[in-house]
Structure formats: structure tokens, C-alpha cells
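Study this fold:
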Amino acid sequence: MIIKKFMLVSLFRQKAEALLWLGVLISMILSHPVMEGHLTLCPLALAGFHWCPGCGVGRSMILALHGQVNASIMMHPLGLPAIAVLSERIYELFSPLNIH
């Protein structure tokens, strides 16, 4: 009984994570690719620093999802790989063979 409950909780967490990442990608698709004064969650930017190695990844992903691949690569070279990683993670979590 305890093992069955644990498996249900684990399955719920997997699907919740998959839905979270899917929601992130959908929100990026629905976002406007060029925004001034965008919201940031970057702790370095919030602390007043003007440079962060990860800044631009989100905007790069948005540009790529809107078909602007060259602009995406110029914004940040890790935008396209980030989309691939998130897509693979979503697929893995929704896969019926992924039961822990």
C-alpha cells in the first residue's frame, strides 16, 4: 500500500513537472519576441550587475520559437540547445515507459 502511494505521488510529480515545462514553452511561443523592459528573475540583474552568463537565454529561446534562428543565436548561443533539452525532458516525463 505504501509503495503504491509512493508510485502515485511520483507519477503526479512527473506529470506536474512536464506540464510546468510545457507551459513555459507555450508561454514563450505566445510572447512577443522583442520586448523592452522585460521581467527578469536573474539574481545578478536584480542585484544591479549588468552582465550575467545566462542573460539572454530566455529571449534567445523566444526568438528561436518564433523562427528567428539567426537572431536567437546572436542573442545567446545556448537558446536552441535549451529548447532541445526542455523538449526532451517533456517527452521523457510524458513517456509511458518513464515510471519510477
Notes: Helices lie at 2-30, 43-46, 57-65, 69-75, 79-94.
